[in-house]
Amino acid sequence: MNILVLDDDVDVLESCRIILEKGGYSVYTFSTSDEALAFLAENPVSLVITDLMMKEIDEGIKFVKEVKKRCGDIPIVMVTGISSRLGYDLSPISDEDKKDFMVDEFVHKPVEPRKLLDIVRNLTRR
Asked: What does the alpha-carbon distance between residue 82 and residue 79 come to, in Å, rounded to a whole number?
């Protein structure tokens, strides 16, 4: 099963890659949305994991919209380091909020390995 991971933080990319590969998944990592979209144009994936804020403040949201437009109902997990601890809370609280963001799950960094694998397993069983 192929998973695409997009994040501008190479440490996050590497940790996600290690966690997911140990879980038996093939992982493709990208640090820009342009690279990730170019890959998606040629390669099907079972799930996408993306950061919320990257080079541009809304890059993750723009990326999700483009993925949905191109790939349809692919499961998407959004991760972010922005939380109420920093004085901001951009995370969807309800299912309606997730719908507005067009994501299936929303996770705060740092992502716990077991939680990430549980989410991925859950979403790829549909």
From this structure: 9
* All domains in the chain, ordered by first residue: 2-124 (3.40.50.2300)
52 DSSP assignment: S
Q: Give the whole-angstrom CA distance, residue 44 versus residue 59.
A: 21
In the chain, the percentage of residues whose pLDDT exceeds 70 is: 86
Tokens 């994040």 belong to which residue?
A: 7
Q: Which one-letter DSSP state was computed for residue 112?
A: P
User: Is the pLDDT score of 111 beyond 50?
Assistant: yes
Q: The pTM is what?
A: 0.88
**Helices within the chain (DSSP H only):** 10-22, 33-42, 59-71, 95-101, 113-124
DSSP characters for 79-114?
EES--GGGT---S--SHHHHHHHT-SEEEESSPPHH
How many Cα neighbours within 13 Å face the side chain of 112? 4
